[in-house]
Specification:
By secondary structure, the protein is mainly β. Helices cover 0% and strands 48% of the residues.
């Protein structure tokens, strides 16, 4: 792995979360973290409120800055949210999802809410799709979310990485000939 020479590239150190908007990455407000020393940088989490996650997925990256430079020293690879699609079938919900991440996803947890009840896990898969037929009744509302579990395969990076989809709802009906 590449290491940073902190004598050549002195602090303060800062990383900035960015979201892809159109074809340009823009800074996410309130998602800049800094430290006067490299050792002082902390691992953190950030939740971006107010996004329309039902209509589209979002792609992010992190830029890293040293000193007072406005030019980034480097940037992470891009990673997207998981985007879930739910389609009705006869006594079943057909789920599929897409994502673009630089790590390997090895399992997907399928969570379901029946008519507004709390979400409960109804299955797991290693595929990018799932057919839920367990107790599904036509004409009732079912909402789903998928949590992707993955890792980089590196001891220095905590695992699993958890990447959740938006909620997608569906009302199954008899549409099968």
């Amino acid at each position: 792995p590449n290491a940073i020479d902190t004598l050549l590239h002195s602090g303060p150190y800062r990383y900035q979360l960015q979201r892809l908007t159109g074809s340009t990455f823009l800074d996410v407000a309130g998602a800049s973290f800094s430290s006067p020393t490299f050792a002082g940088l902390k691992d953190t989490m950030f939740t971006e409120p107010g996004l329309d996650t039902k209509s589209q997925p979002y792609t992010y990256r992190v830029e890293f800055f040293t000193g007072s430079s406005a030019q980034a020293y480097g940037a992470s690879q891009e990673a997207s949210t998981v985007f879930l699609t739910a389609l009705p079938s006869d006594h079943a919900s057909l789920l599929s999802w897409t994502y673009h991440v630089p790590w390997d996803n090895y399992e997907f947890e399928i969570w379901r809410s029946d008519q507004g009840s709390p979400f409960q896990m109804v299955g797991t898969t290693s595929e990018d799709s799932f057919k839920d037929e367990d107790g599904i009744e036509n004409g009732l509302d079912y909402c789903y979310k998928v949590i992707a579990l993955g890792d980089y395969g590196l001891d220095m990076v905590p695992a699993p990485l958890r990447n959740a989809s938006q909620e997608a709802c569906v009302v199954p009906f008899d549409n099968v000939a």
